[in-house]
Amino acid sequence: MTLKQLEVFLAIAETRSFSKGAEESCITQSTASQHIQTLEEELGIRLFDRGRGGALLTEAGKLFLERAKRIRGECDASLAAIRRFRGMEDVVLRVGASNIPGTSLIPDLLGRFLEQCPRVRLEVVQGDSRSVVRQLVAEEIELGFIGGRYDDDQVEYEPMGEDSIICVVSPDLVRSGKYSLSQAELCKVPLVVREQGSGTQQAVYEALAGTWIRKEALRIVALLGSNEAVKRAVLNGTGYAFISAMSVAEEVSGGQLVSIRIPGVNITRRFYAARRVGRELSPAASAFWGLMLAHWRQQGQKR
User: Fold this and answer.
1) Mind listing the pLDDT tens digit for each residue in 267-295?
2) How many domains does the chain have?
3) Cβ contacts of 157 within 8 Å, gap of 6 or more
4) pLDDT at 101
5) What residues make up the domain containing 142?
6) Residue 11 and residue 24: Cα distance in Å, rounded?
7) Are residues 275 and 151 both part of a single domain?
8) How many angstroms separate the CA atoms of 262 and 199, rounded?
9) What is the DSSP annotation of the chain?
10) What pLDDT was estimated at residue 89?
11) CATH number at residue 97
């Protein structure tokens, strides 16, 4: 059974004529007859009575007519959906983002994206960098914007912007204006850290691996699941934390937090745009991908 056979069947049923049905289907009458004959042979039953009154549906034909109309309706709806998809109308774009991209980078560009694609609804699923990569591989999202890069043959990465990771603490915990810690002192202070899989924490441990500090030597008092949770804990005097400079810029500027220098420890990390290898992006995803990369490359040039 083919869609062309259904098209011819419906045209003949609606016009009650093989000749008129053939004309509507832009084929010859003999070709229309062949389509119906093949269809009837496959179904094993006659669909039309042919006589002076024209082509009249048999009882089986009437039953088949309702199903054929539904199939045509679904085909029409599918074509309309693809046209909307290509034209980026009434489309949902699902992207994944780790903490900083999800709370800072994407919101900064949301207005510009909606100006370019006003009929696209953007859904951002937040998680740590590793979970975003897993969602990307599972095709639960179309794009990922993360603060760490993980080896996976199914994912390709494009560098975006850079961010500094700084050590911060509440000024209440700073003793006599001591705004630096030696590497030995760092191992003695209470430390609030992000969960395993966080791009921020991955960058911190990679940087510390270049010093004599072992991860096991750190005095970790809390392991929290988001950048915001770490920031709130530090604001409340729980301890010190390595955190994105971008995410605490206002608090440091306002004096709610102070930055602590650790000689020999300078941490930067990159943000990456991630997509599945060998998969064509939807028009909406392609537009968002291009906008994100262009913006952060411009920011990098300004610096």
Assistant:
1) 888 889 999 998 888 888 898 999 999 88
2) 3
3) 149, 272, 273, 274
4) 87
5) 91-161+270-302
6) 7
7) yes
8) 20
9) --HHHHHHHHHHHHHT-HHHHHHHTTS-HHHHHHHHHHHHHHHTS--EEEETTEEEE-HHHHHHHHHHHHHHHHHHHHHHHHHHHHTT-SEEEEEEE-HHIIIIIHHHHHHHHHHH-TTEEEEEEE--HHHHHHHHHTTS-SEEEES-----TTEEEEEEEEEEEEEEE-GGG--TT--B--HHHHTTS-EEEEPTT-HHHHHHHHHHTTSS--GGGS-EEEEESSHHHHHHHHHTTS-EEEEETTTTHHHHHTTSSEEEB-TT--EEEEEEEEEETT-PPPHHHHHHHHHHHHHHHHHHHH-
10) 65
11) 3.40.190.10
Tens digit of each residue's pLDDT (9 = 90 or more) over 214-245: 888 899 999 998 888 999 999 999 999 999 88
Distance, CA of 187 to CA of 182 (rounded, Å) = 9
> What would the two tokens of residue 280 be?
């064509």
The reply to whether 124 and 177 lie within a common domain is no
Quick one: pLDDT band at residue 302, thresholds 50, 70, 90? very low
CA distance 120 to 101: 20
What are 169's two structure tokens? 């603490």
Write down how long the chain is: 303
- Answer with the one of 86, 120, 137 that is the final residue of a domain: 86
28 and 122 in a single domain? The answer is no
| The residue type at 91 | V
CA atoms within 13 A on the CB side of 39: 24
